From TrEMBL, chain A:
InterPro entries: MetI-like, MetI-like_sf. Belongs to the binding-protein-dependent transport system permease family. The lineage of its organism: Bacteria, Bacillati, Actinomycetota, Actinomycetes, Pseudonocardiales. GO terms for cellular component: plasma membrane. Coiled coil: none annotated. It comes from Kutzneria buriramensis. It is a multi-pass membrane protein. Residues 92-278 form the ABC transmembrane type-1 domain. It is found in: Cell membrane. This is NitT/TauT family transport system permease protein. Its main location: membrane. One of its GO terms (biological process) is transmembrane transport. Keywords: Cell membrane, Membrane, Transmembrane, Transmembrane helix, Transport.
From TrEMBL, chain B:
Residues 16-237 form the ABC transporter domain. InterPro entries: AAA+_ATPase, ABC_transporter-like_ATP-bd, ABC_transporter-like_CS, ABC_transporter_ATP-bind, P-loop_NTPase. One of its GO terms (molecular function) is ATP binding. This is NitT/TauT family transport system ATP-binding protein. SUPFAM superfamilies: P-loop containing nucleoside triphosphate hydrolases. Keywords: ATP-binding, Nucleotide-binding, Transport. The lineage of its organism: Bacteria, Bacillati, Actinomycetota, Actinomycetes, Pseudonocardiales. It comes from Kutzneria buriramensis. CDD domains: ABC_NrtD_SsuB_transporters.
Length: 289, 255
């Protein structure tokens, strides 16, 4: 019969091997995405050539290299300086500020709102309908009113962003706070733990995975909110939304496409970044996909 | 609390005393009807009975999670351990963190907490697993962590709500042995709810049979086998006979 020490030693070896991360994942093959992208660019060239040669409206679908040029160079192919490139990065910076400020406000408001609702069924019944209303009312219908009330500059842009990004924070946080099962709640109750202790040591940690899922969705929405707000409130410093409208109205095809692509890349980056933050925060104990 | 215990500490003291306990839920369902039950220090009492006979409800009243609607339910234990059906571990905490939880909720100091946890983890044979997360453990190991967590309270009265019901037979038997060893060492008062008659007989000094509904106790058996017990007593004719008697009473009550 093994001694206790031997058993313990064997157990901890088993334990260590269980801890080792599994790397059985198939080797990622790189060529399929590259091939798909090449096909996409090829198609784009074909359509651009069609619009250039046959339809003769080249600004509707500009050639990819012209779009790339608009993003990376400050001159046209013929060497004429446009000044567009500097404007694009400045606009991206302003949209970034608006979306992140709006997102931060949405996080704070959403988590507070959900936490209050999680305290009592009555509070949830009283307050949840407003979250649903917020989600259902077409924000665009409120935009003129927001402009009239709060002006047509940054504040209104942030308010629109918050309104668009808030709901996923509220609903996901509430869902997470309520996901604690009864036995776990009773475990705390049996030790005489108060509401605040329960919230801090049980409900909020348990809610983190769904809070991060909400955060990722809200982050994506905050980019949309910032751009939509920008398009409506033309005053103040222009962001990507204004740039899209201006380049579209002036038939600046490559610049319009460049702006759209940068806006999309920003949206993707925000989504990925917050996904990564979520994985770093709770991935240790929760399969955060 | 009671003057009797302070005057005569050697005398068996009653930690749980239920007299004619009734429980009627607000919807009118009668869960318990006239339950009489005592658990003394050094006794391990198992409750067997069909599903829904109110076995778990009895534990919930004993722990204070539920209150009786009639009769007297006196619990004079100051430290009560409660082991749930599921391990109810917090998935974001390591084994160590989970075991420390209850002391933490009682605002124990860091060193105190760590010492208690280390001792309890040692008692359930999980030394070396302190840094593991629950998702890295098997069902049986999770249950051990749950046991260790309750052990940090140094409970006078230990309540078990079908803790091994979801485990496979081998794991269950091994945990039975460990629980029996813990009981032989620590001599808390135990109240153990289970579906398994042989588990009840093997672990207990006393087995009570409940029938539903409303739940009431229909038979009581003293288990004569001395402690500590050899796992092989499960294969003796005396053990089999007692299991047979309890099973018979269970069927009678269920009719």
């Amino acid at each position: 019969m093994p001694t206790l020490q031997e058993t313990a030693a064997r157990r901890s070896t088993v334990a260590r091997s269980a801890l080792r991360p599994r790397r059985i994942r198939k080797r990622a093959s790189w060529w399929q995405p590259v091939a798909a992208f090449a096909v996409f660019v090829g198609l784009w060239y074909a359509v651009a050539a069609y619009y250039d040669q046959t339809v003769e409206l080249p600004y509707l679908v500009p050639y990819p290299h012209l779009v790339l040029q608009a993003i990376v160079h400050d001159t046209r192919p013929d060497g004429v300086p446009t000044g567009f490139n500097a404007e694009l990065w400045a606009a991206l910076g302003r949209t970034t500020v608006v979306s992140l400020v709006g997102l931060a406000a949405a996080i704070v408001l959403g988590v507070l709102w959900a936490t209050v609702m999680a305290q009592a069924k009555g509070l949830e019944k009283a307050l949840y309908p407003y979250a649903v209303v917020l989600q259902c009312v077409p924000i665009l219908a409120l935009v003129p009113l927001i402009g009239a009330l709060f002006g047509y500059a940054s504040l209104s842009r942030v308010i629109v962003t918050v309104m668009i990004a808030l709901f996923p924070m509220v609903s996901n946080t509430l869902f997470g706070l309520q996901s604690v099962d009864r036995a776990q709640r009773e475990l705390f109750e049996l030790q005489g733990a108060g509401r605040l202790t329960r919230l801090r040591k049980l409900q909020i940690p348990a809610a983190l995975p769904s809070i991060f899922v909400g955060l990722r969705t809200s982050a994506g929405l905050s980019v949309i909110g910032a751009i939509v707000g920008d398009q409506f409130f033309q005053r103040g410093d222009p962001g990507l939304g204004v740039l899209i409208q201006v380049t579209a109205s002036r038939l600046m095809g490559p610049e319009l496409y460049a702006t759209i692509i940068i806006a999309s890349l920003y949206g993707i980056a925000v989504f990925l970044a917050f996904g990564l933050i979520g994985r770093l925060a709770v991935g240790r104990w929760f399969d955060f996909s | 609390m009671s003057t009797l215990t302070t005057a005569e500490p050697a005398v068996r003291s009653t930690l749980l005393d239920f007299r004619d306990v009734d429980l009627v839920f607000p919807d009118g369902t009668a869960a318990l009807g006239g339950v009489d039950l005592t658990v003394d220090r050094g006794e391990f009492v198992s409750i067997v009975g069909p599903s829904g006979c109110g076995k778990s409800t009895l534990l919930r009243i004993a722990s204070g999670l539920e209150s009786a609607s009639g009769g007297a339910a006196d619990v004079s234990a100051s430290r009560i351990g409660y082991v749930f059906q599921d391990a109810t571990l917090l998935p974001w905490r390591s084994v160590q963190g989970n075991v420390e939880l209850l002391a933490e909720l009682h605002r124990a100091g860091k060193a105190d907490r760590a010492a208690k946890a280390a001792a309890a983890i040692g008692l359930v044979g999980l030394t070396g697993f302190e840094k593991h997360l629950p998702k890295q453990l098997s069902g049986g190991m999770k249950m051990r962590v749950s046991l260790a967590r309750s052990l940090t309270l140094d409970p006078e009265l230990f309540l078990f709500d079908e803790p091994f019901g979801a485990l496979d037979e081998i794991t269950r038997e091994r945990l039975n042995d460990e629980l029996l060893r813990l009981f032989a060492e620590q001599r808390f008062a135990g109240l153990f709810v289970t579906h398994s008659v042989s588990e009840a007989v093997y672990l207990s000094t006393k087995v009570v049979v409940m029938s539903g509904r409303p739940g009431s106790i229909v038979a009581r058996f003293d288990v004569p086998f001395p402690l500590p017990r050899d796992p092989d007593i499960r294969f003796t004719p005396e053990f089999a006979a007692l299991v047979g008697d309890v099973s018979h009473a269970l069927r009678e009550g269920h009719r």
